[in-house]
Amino acid sequence: MNKINGYEIKPGANLKGANLRYANLYRANLEGANLVGADLEGANLEGAYLKRANLKGAYLKGAYLKGADLVRANLEGANLEGADLRDANLYCADLQGADLEGVNLAGANLEGANLEGVNLEDACLEGANLVGADLEGATLDGAYLYRANLVGANLKGTILEKKEETPQDITSLSQKVKELEEELEKYKAFYQKVTNVKL
């Protein structure tokens, strides 16, 4: 029997409101567990198996969830501010209304996830899979979306204001400048031909 802070850690466990702050839950099997309102601040959940777990309203600020399996997990209204979710699998997970400010979701799978109304301000979504995700009304101000896949995603009402240029933006801008310079040269040549005035 695996117990942490007096709580039994096992698939389907009832951990509603449990205090698991900074607990080491490395690769723990909590499939289908009830973690509603649980305090998991700073907890180590690397590689943890949380498939279909109920984490509604859970406090996961600064938690380490790299590579965690959160397929179809309920994270509605959860606080994941500053959490590390690199390469995590959040396929069809429900994150509606969650706070994901500053979260690291680089390489994460969010295909079909419900991200309606989430706060992703300053989040890193580099290389994340957001195919078919629902981002309606989400805040992406300052989010890093380089190489993120947003094919088929619902971006209705999304707030997207990048604070800094990504490599992709710089490439696009350079291309635009080049096009404008070429256009200017054409106008110069035309003007010179018509007026015989060398520019």
Describe how the helices and strands are arranged.
Layout: E1 3-4, E2 7-8, H1 167-195
Antiparallel strand pairs: 1-2
**In total, how many beta strands?**
2
Number of helices: 1
CATH class of the largest domain: Mainly Beta
SSE string, helix = H, strand = E?
A: EEH
Q: Outline, from the CA principal axes?
A: elongated
Number of domains: 2
**Beta content:** under 5%
Mean pLDDT: 90
Sheet with the most strands? 2 strands, antiparallel
User: How large is the radius of gyration?
Assistant: 23 Å
User: Strands across the major sheet, in which order?
Assistant: 1-2
Helix-strand makeup class? little secondary structure
Describe this entry's structure for a reader.
The chain is largely without helices or strands and about 200 residues long. The protein folds into two domains: about 1-165, E3 ubiquitin-protein ligase SopA (Pectate Lyase C-like, 3 Solenoid), CATH 2.160.20; about 170-199. The protein is about 15% helix and about 0% strand. It contains one helix and two strands; from the N terminus they run ββα. It has one helix spanning about 165-195; strands at about 5, 5-10. The protein has a two-stranded antiparallel ribbon with strand order 1-2.
